[in-house]
Amino acid sequence: MTATIDTRPQGANPFDPDAGLAGIGTPPAARNSSSSAPRSSAPSFLPNGGVGASRTGARRGVITVTGPVGPRYGEILSTDALQFLALLHDRFDAARDELIARRQLRRQDIADGSDPDFRASTRPVRDDPHWRVAGSRRAPGLEDRRVEITGPTDPKMTINALNSGARCWLADAEDASSPTWPNVVEGQLALHDAIRGTLSFTNEAGKEYALRSSTIADLPTIVFRPRGWHLDETHLRYTDANGITSSALGSLVDFGLYFFHNAAELIARGRGPYFYLPKLEGYKEARLWNEVFEVAQDALGIPRGTIRATVLIETLPAAFEMEEILYELRDHCAGLNAGRWDYLFSVIKCFRTRGDSYVLPDRAQVTMTAPFMRAYTELLVATCHKRGAHAIGGMSAFIPDRRSPEVTERAFHQVAADKKREARDGFDGTWVAHPDLIPVAAREFDAVLGDAPNQVSRLRDDVEVGQHDLLDIASARRAGATVTSAGLRSNVSVAIRYLDAWLRGTGAAALDNLMEDAATAEISRSQVWQWIASGTVTDDDQLPVTRERVEAILLDVVASLSPDHGNRIEEAAAIFREVALKDAFPPFLTNAAYQGHLVGSAADQV
């Protein structure tokens, strides 16, 4: 195992190297001086169930398993896999903490009135017309991504997704997955078996599920989404070289276990280790992921550039750094995705205290044709194609109901219109949340793409998007969208019911004929917080949104929900009060809910 060495060509550029990008103005030795010594390839076996990474034989960090161990867990949490996780934490745990601190400072700056903008310090990267990302070159299975299905990685959903007929499957360990310990480990087991063609599943009623092919190259290409940088994994503990112990990082756990067990197998079977990267807020976070990829590939003897990542542009700060994010990941980057729901959440989070002109109307009325949302997606397509990257569209929340033709017809109509717009705007592919929507989306992209695998060559030189366009949040209400009492009640109801499902181990829930996940729950609770903080009045009845009003709605919603075995409605209500009704605004509802309610619960047991 060797230390990471930056072999990219250096260039003299006239801006601050610390504010600039890796590979520009900073010699490799300076960037890697703390990691220049070689690491031993032999594991250091430690007591108490932990395995540490070693450097020249010296004992260093250790990963300890503290969660319960179920059948076959040892196959995923093997000695070598834990050593690999320790290596990643040794290298990147402190850097991640620094980035999270930078996020908080930047978020406060925006809340205090400093608008995000395109960085002057990184303009040379944006102005350089020559560089391109790796894209789908030498990445089998990523050339044509016109329809991707999304979903969690439990065995049933894994089989259904891989049998769906989509071009790709976003195997989701993040927003569509409740991070219970069984979901984390057994999701890895399901992926492990699916890649090797051995996965099968029988439900409690005796129904059997099996893959339609044992050859992974015959099935949708797997693109795995680990948890974001902000989430921890409590069931694995990392003790650093100084003896300081903390929870492992969910992002490194998810990425590390999947990559360690499956990267070589995927390559041998005609695919590759492909990833979606969630919740990035800037190019430095992309740089950290690129360094993780380099270290991981070196450690396992896999050539650099084998990994391909698609970055979700789902935060407002990241929208101003799309080219820089592509540049940082250029040797490992396949494209960008318009993560629309988290993007709306980020807009609310950034501007939650900036007054009425930044208040978003009902979530259902904020469409993708709202000027500020259209600016975001148009810029994403233009940026991707300028640099040879795929632009992947987001997910319409409408889902069919096989028991209700009327609901299904409405979902088909809404999704078809959404995908037609994306295809015509230049997107190379899109997401759906239900197998029945695959033909609907495919028809719209087939009409534009024909036999071509993508439309990356279609440059959108006509797109001109500036700071004002991305920040014109008031454009949605100027166009007639409103804040309503029904929208307020819907936010409370969706948040409570989703949190109840999440606490019971389900991360993607069909509610009111919409597919809800953690991102839409975040919109629901953050809108309520913003409406209260801004003194917003609901347009239909001219009543202010107050804590007292929301509390009354909350009690009514809780009373209306039928109790059943394992119901966690009261806990869901308690979480909602913490994240929507208190003075402080938690950056993510999942952090407190995970630590305070999910870990150790019945859903968290093996």
Estimate the mean pLDDT confidence.
90
The counted number of beta strands is: 19
Roughly how many Å apart are the termini? Answer: 35 Å
Class from helix and strand fractions:
alpha/beta
Please work out how many helical segments DSSP would assign. 21
* Biggest sheet: strand arrangement: 8-5-4-15-14-13-12-11
Helical content stands at 40-55%
- Poorly predicted runs are 1-58
Q: Tell me what portion of residues adopts beta-strand conformation.
A: 5-15%
How would you sum up the global shape? globular
**Main sheet characteristics:** 8 strands, parallel
As a whole number of angstroms, the C-alpha radius of gyration is: 23 Å
Walkthrough of the structure:
It is an enzyme of class 2 (transferase). This is Malate synthase. Keywords: Acyltransferase, Glyoxylate bypass, Transferase, Tricarboxylic acid cycle. Residues 483-595 form the Malate synthase C-terminal domain. Residues 64-122 form the Malate synthase N-terminal domain. This protein has 606 residues and is an alpha/beta fold. It is built from 21 helices and 19 strands. The protein has an 8-stranded parallel β-sheet. It has a 5-stranded antiparallel β-sheet with strand order 1-2-3-9-10. β6 and β7 (208-210) form a beta hairpin. Mean pLDDT is 90; it is low at 1-58.
